[in-house]
Amino acid sequence: MKRIWEIPVNDFYKGKRVFLTGHTGFKGGWLVLWLQSMGAEVHGYALSPPTEPNLFTLARVEEGMGSSIVADIRDAVALADAIQSACPEIVIHMAAQPLVRSSYEGPAETFSTNVMGTVNLLEAVRHTDTVKAVVIVTSDKCYENREWLWSYRENEAMGGHDPYSCSKACAELVTTSYRRSFFSPTDEPESHYAAVASARAGNVIGGGDWALDRLVPDIIRSLLVNQPPTIRNPLATRPWQHVLEPLCGYLTLAKSLYQDHHRTAEAWNFGPGEESVRSVGEVSDWLIKRWGEGGKWEQDLSSNPHEAKLLKLDSSKARCNLGWTTVLSIEETLDWTVQWYRGLKAGEKGRDLTLRDIEHYQSRL
Predict the structure, then answer these.
(1) Which of 21, 65, 116, 205 could staple 95 via S-S, CB 3.0–4.6 A?
(2) Which residues pair with 230 in a beta bridge?
(3) What pLDDT was estimated at residue 303?
(4) Is 4-364 in CATH node 3.40.50.1100?
(5) Which one, of 198, 316, 183, 173, lies nearest residue 253 by Cα?
(6) DSSP of 157-174, one letter per residue?
(7) CA-based angle 332:168:300, to the nearest 5?
(8) Do 111 and 273 meet the contact criterion of CB atoms below 8 Å apart?
(9) Phi, psi of 69 (to 5 degrees)
(10) For residue 96, which of 20, 207, 18 has the smallest C-alpha distance?
(11) What is the reported pTM?
(12) 74-93 mean pLDDT
């Protein structure tokens, strides 16, 4: 029998029914198109796209979906109805309030969306017999960040200085509690019980992201109007990765949960290696240089809310047990990102640009 990661991705997802929350967002849009390209039947549940422009509209993500429901993850009844109607085999939960700075402005909304939204999702799954695999996507910021030099492993303490980070730590605790209480193997056949895992990744970049107060979209917006980008913390370092890298991790994990049931039902990190750690200033310099129209960034010297300056993940467990690893260098990641936006500026279609990157990425696997 082939190991999980030896089974071609196309072969596994073809014909699978997948329910995805957050499909109108940046990562969600990329994942819908990837799943569709593999022949999956995708059902989505999310709020309307959070920005204008947005990838969901530009890439015509809704086309070909089994269903696309615009509703709030905090509406437990609507969410349960949507999942039961879709009869999914695989559920990937990405709907969230995703921004640190926004969490300072609306902490109650951040907690209710990210914590109770996760509760509502797991409650709905608990009463849907068709579901075999669930991936709850949280964030690398779920860890109690001590600003130390080494990388965080999955068994590190949960925490969070800001409301966003804390809400993701809480979502992890909720997931663990539900997994132990309602989704553990019993004497009954395992196929009757969904295998539930959580996935932690962060600082993803790529074409189609227009979120406010996020480095790459902020820089691109400035470059498109020939204005010098303004950045807050040029010395802060992050492990940068292309959006397709963690999405590949989520797909690999969901496949493992589906076929191996509860063997991999636990928490997983999906982050790049040490070679992809760069400062905000370095990334800004590279993007401006690759854009090719001159200029330089300026530092925002005004008072800003607290943000972590150093955070890295140890993804050795995913590499050893799932066979997942990043395939793009930091230079390729930044190049692919710039090329997507420059292609859009030149008149290419958002859907074509996205599917082209997906095809190129798959050829590297």
Answers:
(1) 21
(2) 298
(3) 64
(4) no
(5) 198
(6) PB--SSHHHHHHHHHHHH
(7) 60
(8) no
(9) -105, 125
(10) 20
(11) 0.94
(12) 98
